[in-house]
Amino acid sequence: MNPEIRRAAEILRAGGLVAFPTETVYGLGADASSAAAMARLYRVKGRPADHPVIVHFDSMERALAWTRDVPSEARILAERFWPGPLTLILKRSDKAKDFVTGGQPSVGVRVPSHPVAQELLRAFGGGVAAPSANRFGRVSPTTAAHVREDLGGDVDFVLEGGPSEVGIESTIVDLSGGGAVLLRPGKISKADLQKIVELKEKTESSPRHSGGLERHYSPRTPARLVATHALDREISHLKNRVAVLAFSRPDERVDYWLRMPREPEGYAQKLYAALRELDGAGCDLILVEAPPEGPEWAAVRDRLVRACA
Ligand code: TXA
Ligand code: MG
Fold it and tell me: How far apart are CA 52 and CA 47, in angstroms?
């Protein structure tokens, strides 16, 4: 076994914190069956204790052992999309304690596909709770360098795995209450899911999830979404130093400009690194050109609306 993986698994077993790459974003991992490890995870993350975390496994068998009364739709989704960027919220078994679920009767489980995550989870052999490896409310990390910037010495070990391929967090589907509800859009789209299961609309009683908080995934610099046709006018009226995230070529009046891909998957992959870069540009304001209306942009739009809330 790769010595880095062995060391990371030992740290997890000893109750430590290991940041590791997944195909979506980097996770901050802790032994999901240890109250002490979980307490430390919440402290470092700065996350309120009643917010549940996703538990990661190397296989569907291990993941479903933390759940019960699994509906057939959940099995079908798991077989189709695992390993991959999908999280299922299911009724929990005795293995999922209150300190993982935030006291809710359900648990979020996921089998990531990133080879380093897979190796780590196999070596560890149990459930690894892993929120995104950033401080609460900040932009998720998509490289090991981002993790070190955010968490520094508060994490015991950071596994390298290159830039995350998907770039935004997993799609979350809640199947804990009868029917399937899309809680968080991601690379696996509503259309992908609807080919397989019927989706119900989200209601007020849907379980709490921090991705549902208005201001989340936010840069420190105030950010604003601007329609394409209004971008030029906004720029010509601005007196402050401004950084722009847009599809078109740079405008020379603007201090800092990042050009983004015109297709949603490429855009998602670059999004969080771009927001970090613009945040570091020392401007007073970030202007974000709004993406197109189509359903294929839903996940990107969701993250941008929150970043600009
Ligand atoms: O792509 C991802 O899902 C990444 C990587 C590391 O796997 N993880 C991630 O975790 O985004 P986190 O903790 O930053 O976001 C997890 C979301 C939160 O909004 C959390 O509240 C929700 O999943 N969640 C977890 N368990 C839940 C449950 N039982 N009921 C409702 N929401 C839940
Ligand atoms: Mg997060």
Answer: 9
CB 245 within 8 A of CB 225: no
> From the CA of 256, how far away is ligand 1's center (Å)?
33
Is the CB of residue 60 less than 8 Å from the CB of residue 127?
Answer: no
**Any atom of ligand 1 within 6 Å of the Cβ of 108:** yes
Sign of the four-CA dihedral 19, 21, 22, 24: positive
Query: Is the peptide bond prior to 83 cis by the omega test (within 30 degrees of 0)?
Result: yes
* Structure token pair of residue 263: 């297709």
CB neighbours of 128 closer than 8 A, spacing ≥ 6? Answer: 12, 27, 29, 30, 31, 32, 55, 56, 57, 120, 121
Locate the ligand 1 atom nearest the alpha carbon of residue 211 and give its number. Answer: 19
Ligand 1 atom closest to residue 166's alpha carbon, by position in its atom list? 1
> From edge to edge, which strands make up the β-sheet containing 223-226?
223-226, 285-289, 242-246, 256-259
If you measure from the C-alpha of residue 116 to the centroid of ligand 2, how many angstroms do you get, rounded to a whole number?
A: 20
Say yes or no: CB of residue 210 within 6 Å of ligand 1. yes
At residue 67, what are phi and psi to the nearest 5 degrees?
-125, 170
Mean pLDDT of residues grouped by 10 in the chain (309 residues)?
Answer: 96 98 98 98 91 97 98 98 98 98 96 98 98 88 96 96 98 95 96 96 62 64 94 89 94 93 98 96 95 96 93
Q: Can you tell me which residue has the tokens 């070596």?
A: 123
CA distance 130 to 55: 6
CA of 27 to the centre of ligand 2 (A): 9
Retrieve residue 88's tokens. 């299922």
Digit-coded pLDDT (tens) for 151-202: 999 999 999 999 999 999 999 999 999 899 999 999 999 999 999 999 998 8
Tokens 């992959």 sit on residue: 269
Pairing outcome for strands 54-56 and 106-110: parallel
**Which residue among 169, 170, 217, 302 is best mutated to probe the pocket of ligand 1, counting the most ligand atoms within 8 A of its Cβ?**
169
Residue 97's pLDDT is what? 98
